[in-house]
Amino acid sequence: IVDFVPSMTRETREVETFVIGSYGFFLPHKGLLELIEAVALLRNQGELVELQMFNAEYPVPDSKILIEEAMNKIDSLNLGDLVSVCTDYFEDEVCLSKLAGVDLIVFPYQETGESSSAAVRYGLATGRPVAVTPLSIFEDVSSVVFQLPGQSPQDIADGIREIRHKLKSDNFSTCDVIGLADQWRERH
Fold this sequence. Notes:
Blueprint: E1 18-25, H1 32-44, E2 49-56, H2 61-76, E3 83-86, H3 92-99, E4 104-107, H4 118-125, E5 130-132, E6 146-147, H5 153-169, H6 172-187
Parallel strand pairs: 1-2, 1-4, 2-3, 4-5, 5-6
């Protein structure tokens, strides 16, 4: 993984908003539309959440179309104040620094033929907790990430809510995953 040392200081927030981040190229199998819908579900359930999307446009028409769909979904769900979308491509250090400021990085992938995910390694490099959908693409990091219960917007929302509450309570299993992620990062 990228050798990145996250800043020990994080921005303090006035309210207890839980900031979710997404990272990787804006492509159909990444589950980004489902993540946007999950944020709407969380908001409607009274959860204070925000989504910061760091998903660069990939130089294919599908990526541009998906970005337009995402922006339309954000508008139609009235999420303009809760979801920010950055489709610029940043150098590793810049992007990792931005990601290190969120509370949880989510990789809500849908079905894919890829055998592993380079993007999830970038998420792990930040030192922040990482959540993934239950797919074989994440098998190699399964012990160092939080697994969402499924791939639907409801499953993603339920998983994020549960992880948030575990992180707030310093749950033993949560501390275990974070500790294993720290060890994994050191080894890689």
